[in-house]
Design brief:
- The complex is a heterodimer of chains A (246) and B (440).
- With 246 residues, chain A is α/β, with parallel strands linked by helices.
- Chain A is 35% helix and 11% strand.
- With 440 residues, chain B is an alpha+beta fold.
- Chain B has one domain (44-431): Orthogonal Bundle (Cytochrome-c3 Hydrogenase, chain B).
- In chain B, the strands form 5 sheets. Chain B has a 4-stranded mixed β-sheet.
- The chains are: A alpha/beta (246), B alpha+beta (440).
- Chains A and B meet through helix 1, helix 2, helix 5, helix 8 and helix 10 of A and helix 1, helix 4, helix 5 and helix 6 of B.
């Protein structure tokens, strides 16, 4: 069998998810050996102008150039993977959408703001069709490897649609609410093995919201601990603001 | 005969973090244009921070850059604690120093091996090296993985650390964790020796241009990375709160891009700046390596920033091992473990304030500055990134370099220009929430 031609592309993001690949150590050589890597600007000078079997997209779509570029890549790619929170849900770039766009441009770039065009931040699937989603900020490597295996076998990958709490309980963590702080675990998709809570922090919702969060029970939890709902909504908007774009 | 007319346009420079272009135009032997353009999509971080809790600043600003996430984390925490009037414990400071050592080591190794080595070995990327220099690639990945594994133990992960927050750490390493981290780092020594051996044989381009070097300075004996005053090789020394007097951001008339300058037309930050400012404070193992590869302060060849990174790798590895050995003897105090979240439990008193963080991160000195209101919400945020401070200096280097190499062919000139920019290890994602951006 011929190895699938794979390419990495980065849009507006911190490139940390690409770095997660290098962080696999020598294991990355086994993963790369299953593919023919044809383009990857961050680490390669080689370029490729033909079709890709697999295109991995990191970052959010934040301006017209990006829309044009992602549309071209989609046309050349058999399979397109949205890689990391910025690509799958808009991620932290979505916080920009909390503000009037001209207002935020002026704040950061002053009088020269007109030279810095921007649009509402969008996740990749809000612009072109996406075949696989690798959630997380950053991506969780065991899940990424599982998804690459699914890609190689030509089968779908289903992102867990149950709460981070499920994994968190299995890891025997004490609930953050019992420690007196709020956590987005109850409404966030699992698949990260409750990474942040295992390390004493809270869940910030980087993997996106459940398709059907148990809203009533979440409200009960907030009431039990006397926490205003605005606090949670503001927290949710750190990663999930783009869900409002239809 | 020297080239009279030359038009180089490197669009989307590769093997750097983020999107940048090099544009060089020579007409009748004279440079008409010579610039480094930053074309990464702006992300508006400082704008987005407004109105958010100061306790979220670390989490958000870490996402400015995946490579130096720990560096942003430490600068952000320092600025937030400065604004809130929190003084970290000595244990916290030690653990943060350990984290910063790991950050330097990890980032420098990535740059030296995967981004620069292909140029010195005459190939386009590390991919062909997998076949031609398999052992070298494996060593690079193995060392990188070890840094990463130590970070996993210390702060949950290297890309966007989890447990390092305002006030301290949400999870402290257990005794066996200290042992494991120590074992991993001590186990890296033979690979580090082989790395030094490899790079001492590779030849860096000859080129010199005197400039001002800026970085942290201090009065104690430790190579200053986490804290100190801001100093320069032109004998300037100021408190971190005066960072604006250092950066002096200004607009160049022919573009909208902001630059920084101090005593001269531009200054440089990064490994070479730190080496030039604080050579005497490097650990003896690192100074020995510097001697071996012939690197002496004040070195004014920007290509040797990579060599200075190598020296710092040795320093940071040994420094990190030293910290862990101390913890092995003195033990961790677990009462310092904290639960903060958004501080909704009011564990940390909040005041109105203005704080600055100045931390040496792999690419140079990084500033974070926040003003908070009485509820602890961010009213104003500013981050000055090393790459922004270096862009002007890179252009002046290019302007001196190009006339010196016009007798070579276009391909070689392009390669040398790319190598020069790459030597500074520019981090363009970082720099693009700032003013130093120009669209073509």
């Amino acid at each position: 069998m011929k190895k699938p031609k794979i390419a990495f592309f980065d849009f507006a993001c911190c490139e940390g998810c690409q770095l997660q690949v290098a962080n696999m150590g020598e294991g990355v050589l086994d993963v790369l050996a299953a593919f023919d890597v044809v383009e990857w600007r961050e680490v390669m000078s080689e370029k490729w102008d033909k079709k890709y079997d697999v295109a991995i997209i990191e970052g959010s779509i934040t301006d017209n150039h990006a829309v044009e570029r992602i549309t071209k890549i989609r046309k050349k790619a058999n399979i397109l993977i949205a890689y990391g929170s910025c690509a799958t849900i808009g991620g932290v770039n979505g916080m920009k959408n909390n503000f009037e766009l001209d207002d935020i441009r002026k704040y950061v770039y002053g009088e020269s703001y007109k030279f810095f065009p921007t649009e509402l931040t969008k996740a990749v699937h809000q612009v072109v069709k996406v075949d696989y989603f690798v959630n997380g900020c950053p991506v969780y490597i065991p899940e990424f490897v599982a998804i690459l295996k699914a890609v190689l076998q030509g089968i779908p990958y289903y992102v867990p649609d149950y709460a981070v709490c499920v994994e968190c309980k299995l890891n025997e963590n004490i609930c953050m609410y019992d420690k007196g702080v709020t956590c987005l675990g109850p409404v966030t998709r699992a698949g990260c093995n409750s990474w942040c809570i295992n390390n004493g922090n809270i869940c910030y919702g980087c993997r996106g919201m459940l398709s059907n969060p148990n809203e009533k029970s979440a409200r009960d939890v907030l009431a039990k601990y006397n926490i205003p709902i605005e606090l949670i909504i503001n927290k949710m908007n750190m990663y999930n603001k783009c869900r409002e774009i239809i | 005969m020297a080239i009279q007319n030359l038009n180089i346009n490197v669009e989307y420079l590769t093997r750097v973090e983020g999107h940048g272009n090099i544009v060089i135009n020579v007409k009748e032997g004279k440079i008409e244009t010579c610039k480094l353009e930053i074309v990464e999509a702006p992300r508006f971080f400082e704008g987005m921070l407004r109105g958010r809790s100061i306790f979220e600043a670390q989490h958000i600003t870490s996402r400015i850059c995946g490579i130096c996430a720990c560096g942003h984390t430490l600068a952000s925490i320092q600025a937030a604690e400065d604004a809130l009037g929190i003084i970290p414990t000595s244990q916290t400071i030690k653990l943060r120093k350990l984290l910063l050592d790991l950050e330097m080591l990890d980032s420098h190794l990535l740059h030296i091996y995967l981004l620069v080595a292909p140029d010195l070995l005459g190939v386009k990327s590390f991919v062909p090296l997998i076949n031609s220099h398999n052992e070298v690639v494996r060593r690079a990945l193995r060392m990188k993985k070890k840094c990463n594994d130590v970070c996993d133990i210390l702060v949950g992960r290297h890309v966007h650390p989890i447990s390092a927050i305002v006030g301290g750490f949400t999870k402290l390493p257990e005794e066996k964790d200290i042992e494991n981290m120590l074992g991993l780092l001590q186990g890296m020594r033979p690979d580090m020796e082989a790395t030094v051996e490899l790079f001492s044989k590779l030849k860096f381009p000859d080129f010199e241009r005197d400039t001002e070097y800026v970085g942290l300075v201090s009065d104690d004996d430790e190579y200053p990375l986490l804290s100190g005053d801001i100093g320069s090789t032109d004998n300037i020394r100021l408190s971190k709160h005066d960072y604006r007097k250092i950066t002096n951001e200004f607009i160049v008339p022919h573009s909208t891009a902001k630059r920084t300058k101090l005593s001269r037309e531009s200054y440089a930050v990064g490994a070479l700046a730190r080496f030039n400012l604080n050579y005497d404070k490097l650990l003896s193992e690192a100074r020995r390596v510097a001697e071996m590869i012939g690197l002496k302060p004040k070195c004014i060849n920007p290509f040797l920033n990579t060599a200075a990174q190598l020296v710092e790798c040795v320093h940071c590895l040994e420094h990190a091992i030293g910290i862990l050995e101390e913890f092995k003897k003195s033990k961790i105090n677990y009462d310092e473990e904290i639960v903060v979240g958004l501080n909704e439990n009011r564990k940390i008193p909040v005041i109105e304030g203005n704080g600055v963080g100045a931390v040496e991160v792999p690419r140079g000195i990084l500033f974070h500055n926040y003003q908070t209101d009485e509820k602890g919400c961010i009213r104003y945020a500013n981050c000055v990134i090393p790459t922004n401070q270096n862009t002007g200096n890179i252009e002046y280097d290019l302007k001196k370099l190009i006339p010196e190499i016009l007798d070579r062919n276009e391909e070689e000139i392009t390669l040398l220009s790319e190598m020069l920019v790459r030597a500074y290890d520019p981090c363009i994602s970082c720099s693009t929430h700032l003013l130093n951006i120009k669209f073509m």
